[in-house]
Amino acid sequence: MTIRILPEGVINRIAAGEVVERPASVVKELVENAIDAGARSIEISLRDGGRAFIAVVDDGIGMTKEEMALAIERHATSKLPGDDLEHIATLGFRGEALPSIASVARVVITSRPRGATEGWSLAIDGGRKGAVAPVAHAFGTRVEVRDLFFATPARLKFLKSNRTELDQAEDMVARLAMARPEIGFALVDDSRPVFKLPAARSGTAAGRLDRLGAILGREFADNAVAIDAVREGYRLTGYAGLPTLNRRNSLHQYLFVNGRPVKDRLLFGAVRGAYVDLLASDRHPMVALFLEVPATDVDVNVHPAKTEVRFRDAGLVRGLIVSALKHALAGAGHRASTTGGRAALDALRPGMMRLGATRSAPLPGLPMGAAPGAPRSGFAEAAAAYHAPLPDLAAPPAAPAHAPADERPQDFPLGAARAQVHATYVVAETADGLVVVDQHAAHERLVYERMKKAMAAQGVARQCLLIPAVVELDPAQAARVAALAPELAEFGLVVEAFGPGAVVVREVPALLGDVDAIALVKDLADELAEFDQAGSLKERLEDVCSTMACHGSVRAGRKLNVTEMNALLREMEVTPHSGQCNHGRPTYVELKLADIEKLFGRR
Fold first, then answer.
1. Domains of the chain
2. 377: burial class by Cβ within 10 Å (0-12, 13-18, 19+)?
3. For the chain, which end, N or C, has fewer CB atoms within 10 Å of the first or last residue's CB respectively?
4. What is the pLDDT of residues 189-243, one digit of tens each?
């Protein structure tokens, strides 16, 4: 075969295959052009999920007659002043979007620059250009795309349903809208409004949170912590959801680099690393993070769709994200998401109650007309009397059945203990409602944080067993545990080989109290079986601590007296991440008095 130059039409269709995968790709390119044109309002209209019709209208700077003729030529762009590929400050710069789209669809471009007395229109049909003609038009640009892929039927038949294509386009517009709260966005499908996002009127941080709340829902806005960290010229801002606000997949993780929405493994991995000891392995946090880096330190030209990036210093980026998220989540203290309380209240509403359910009597100590008070601002002052570890919970409960007179609900964020239900849940009265605490989950987190702190300081204190415990395992498990004995000793667990299929436990972490050493080692053996054999036990600090903490925590079914319950609440208030257990489940649910009164018709 002889080498030849492909026809221009074939070249454009090949380029279109790289840039235009589906209707959402067209929407992305056109909306990015509108943003780069300085638009403050962008309207997107679709029909049949975008396969029949796409229109993007903006109020940007517009194009002159001469610029319009050039806009549909390959590699023509206004976004590379000085032809400098090292300083990309716009969303689009390759100059392939419009000609690629026009080669596989019927396109009409209408535009009028500010200050001009008339607009101009240009039609392109499958790559065949018409003449630029004058037309009446408002300031800005309108691009209409009809019959997408009519010129490439093979690509058309691989499109999904209209609903799926609309969902993809909606997600794309939402991502771009998150990064630009100062721009108003409206999306319409088949004359049905999908969403309308007005331009933010407040400052940057408040406006961004309002925009995120409008897209991700109020529960995200109500249960997210602000992120703002700087390291060596790199800045990370945005919001991260509390660990108890999690999802089954990572679709609700939105990451942006210099205002560009990206899907990057490095960034997703950093987010997962920051939440590693706060969530179960099959749960994912909700985040919206905006990374600003020097243009020379990031390559945005890795992929034609520009959704992947490459950093000059990937380690710096990962370290910034992990440390910023960990610091912000630790600063949230005992805070847990409000979704648990909301779900509980929804389950109790009359329309959602099961037939035959009876109304329970009010809990003692919770007068319905109690006036709310203001909790003290500092947790340290509130817990001053409870600076010591929790009481010995192996001892029998003391006699008092009510809180001391000076234990007032309004004095503490998590209130004063009033009762224990089913020997599992602690009920506390707060200034404006009540809190229900899962005693096992809460204490598990407290023990876990103590162990991490001890490991970081001088190691975990150990206590000898009066009678060493022999743990029978299968030979492979016993060999694995014995091989890691030196590292387990740093965690306070001293084990030795005891024949081919057993180990003997001589010391256990003092923090765990009266622990079942045999059950603990068996669980650890199962945990170690899943470790990477090339990895170190210290690299799996969170997993080991979590397993030990679970065995050292107060079990469900253990009756607590009021002093013990209040000590648990006070330590939760001063312990980071105490709002969720080691698996990301909430340790407590808060119910506001106003919502409870609504259930009983008092409001």
1. 8-197 (3.30.565.10), 204-331 (3.30.230.10), 404-603 (3.30.1540.20)
2. exposed
3. N
4. 998 999 999 998 766 778 899 999 999 998 899 899 999 999 999 999 999 999 8
